[in-house]
Amino acid sequence: MVGGMTDEQKTLAFVVYPGLTPLDLVGPLQVLSALAQMDPGYRTVVVGASTDTVGTDTPLRVAPSHTFEEVPAPYAVLVPGGTVPTLRAMADERLLAWLRTAAESAQLMTSVCTGSLILGAAGLLEGKQATTHWMLRDVLAGLGATPVARRWVEDGSVITAAGVSAGIDLALHLVERLAGRQVATNVQFAIEYDPEPPQGALDWANQPYGDLKPLREHTLRQGLAEHPELLGRLLAHT
Amino acid sequence: MVGGMTDEQKTLAFVVYPGLTPLDLVGPLQVLSALAQMDPGYRTVVVGASTDTVGTDTPLRVAPSHTFEEVPAPYAVLVPGGTVPTLRAMADERLLAWLRTAAESAQLMTSVCTGSLILGAAGLLEGKQATTHWMLRDVLAGLGATPVARRWVEDGSVITAAGVSAGIDLALHLVERLAGRQVATNVQFAIEYDPEPPQGALDWANQPYGDLKPLREHTLRQGLAEHPELLGRLLAHT
Q: Which of A63, A80, A109, B99 is the right S-S partner for A24, CB 3.0 to 4.6 Å?
């Protein structure tokens, strides 16, 4: 208690685990750290099993600011996705236990890309509408969720975003929800988010899904080789 | 030399320095690492003064994969931006010396956001068209460049991008330049880059520039306090 303040800062916790896709994490982290700079009612933290450096699916290594134990009751949680390492994280009981405990008090449980598969493995998508990377969207049904093809999907306190770059859109939506539209616009100017995809919008009629289908099944089998029951539930929806 | 191959992989080097804005780095790194996965002719590396972890302008810490000395002749270089720490990096002689040496053989010298100020401090923007974060665009003139208000600006081998999130657009442009449009589209699907900014496009007629002008001068003075000559050159263009 400092200066008579009784309100605590609301903690927005970003999860790190080995092998994640760093853009899933850093897009929303940059956006919500800008919110925290503009509004001292919020702080961002990066949580992991330890504060040691872990690898990602790029040559960059990253390190959390806090351990799971140091952040037992965050206001909001964001889980990033990835490929094989994310499927492995679906069976990380320490991560899952932390998510279940956090969800008891958190006002927002969110994910980017295949991070929603981890939320689902923790039992947090049961009966919820949710999304993930377009290539794996249908396997959400194996986790009790109803898959939805949108940039982000809000179902009560659970908000899931589509693949990788969708985390930036999700995060700007969260800023508006937490602090209003003007603050969200200020953050958008701060990160100069005025996208000009050089190849234009994605042409979903020509998505390379057919080419990638064998890769998808290979990824699932590789990530969940030691968890045949879970693998079976997901493969049943491919 | 393996299997009679004589061509070496082309190395795309992403620069890390303390205090950077991680989205400037990770957006393009994710895109070009996807290229490297699709085309073994390329590899991405993250370079820094050491491979130790450094802080960013968020609670995330990051660590390079290689030291500057280990990557003396990259095919392409990308320098991310930031706020006060980036201005300090403009006077980091070891970083500037590495950039000047790399520029002698590199086919592409690129930057995101205020990373272009570091390229400029190394003398690499002399006589070039360039851009940076919209708030600091005009100070590029103090580094010998002609400021241009575009998402990214290509002037021969030097390509500079606008603020923070513009690095994703720059990187997809680079993929198309290096590997063609179909590969760029495949990468775009992989990161599901189909932006839907929740607050719409930025309304440049209502940019908060006036409100932020004192912050801009404060940032310049704080970052370059020990380098009055350089500070003077930049302030002359504010």
A: A80
Task: Round to whole Å and give the CA distance between B105 and B236.
Answer: 33
- Catalytic residue positions of B, numbered: 113
Give the best residue of B172, B189, B203 to mutate against chain A (max A CB count within 10 A): B189
Name the one residue in this structure whose structure tokens are 């990380």: A92
Q: In terms of pTM, does the model score above 0.80?
A: yes
- Tell me whether A30 touches chain B (CB under 8 Å): yes
**CA A214 vs CA A4, A14, A164, B165, B187: distances in Å:** 60, 31, 21, 32, 18
Residue A237: CB atoms within 10 A of its CB come to: 14
The predicted-structure confidence for A174-225, as pLDDT tens digits, reads as follows 999 999 999 999 999 999 999 999 999 999 999 888 878 888 899 999 999 9
Topology given in CATH for the domain delimited by A10-194: Rossmann fold (3.40.50)
Burial of residue A102, with CB atoms counted within 10 A of its CB: 0-12 exposed, 13-18 middle, 19 or more buried: buried
Pairwise CA distance, residues B47 & B95, whole Å: 10
CA distance B81 to B23: 9
CA-to-CA distance for B30 and A57, rounded, in angstroms? Answer: 8
